Amino acid sequence: MYCIELKNVVKKYGEVIALNGVSFNINCGEKVALLGPNGAGKSTILKLLAGLLKPEKGEVLVKGLDPFFIEARKIIGYLPEDASPYLMLNVRENLEYIASLRGVDKDRVDKLLDFLGLRQYENTRIVYLSKGNKQRLALALALLHDPEILLLDEPLNYLDIPTREKVISLLKSMNSTMLISTHIMSIAERLVNRAVILSNGKVVWQDDLTELKKSSGEEIESLVARLMEDVN
Q1: Residues 172-218: pLDDT tens digits?
Q2: pLDDT at residue 230 above 70?
Q3: Is the CATH number 3.40.50.300 carried by domain 4-231?
């Protein structure tokens, strides 16, 4: 059984086709990058897998389950792009509220506060946080229950360099199955070995990044850009 599976998925927003027959699989424990330009359909795929959207056609499965099932939601951690935690709560209250829903011990809250450098902001309401600190909190919320499957949309946005390095190190050390959406190749190369490349709502390439680089002789960034352009 695959941990993540999409079969001929079509998703529309009104008359706009966001995904057009997308298919790919991710093995359990695998870390995969979802690459593509803005508007390629990356965020839509993560929302489908997180159970926030339904496809018009095709099938989306998380460990063989519909993402809308509670059994699937229990094992998923989801970081949306530009996440917005509960604005009227403070940092600790956000974490403790989600911890209570997830059945997570408060010790885990304290560990993440310290690891992500949020201890000094634990009593600060979200409306007063910088974008970088909101992103740290959003990451903590996604990681809180040590999920089997992590869906991360631009996880390193707004982070300073020391925090970025800590997060990269943590993600690399985890055994979770990960699908990481990004348009920055240098980040993808450090976190994953395999990538799925989207353009105009279609998969234009999927395979091992190292093999792609060996076979083409090009730098990964320029090669990916060419693959995207070729489909337009």
Answers
A1: 999 999 999 987 777 888 899 899 999 999 999 898 877 766 655 55
A2: no
A3: yes
Tokens of 90: 């403070």
Tokens of 92: 């600790």
Question: Do the beta carbons of residue 48 and residue 5 sit within 8 Å?
Answer: no
Q: What does the angle CA 99 – CA 134 – CA 39 come to, to the nearest 5 degrees? A: 105
Sheet order of strands, 16-26 included: 16-26, 4-13, 57-62
Global pTM reads 0.92
DSSP 148: S
Helix (H) or strand (E) run with residue 222 in it: helix 220-231
Number of H helices, E strands in the chain: 9, 9
Report the pLDDT value the prediction gives residue 162, as an integer from 0 to 100: 94
| CA within 13 Å, CB half, 43 | 12
Q: Please spell the DSSP secondary structure of 27-71, one letter per residue.
A: -TT-EEEEE--TTSSHHHHHHHHTTS---SEEEEEETTB-TTSHH
Structural domain boundaries in the chain = 4-231
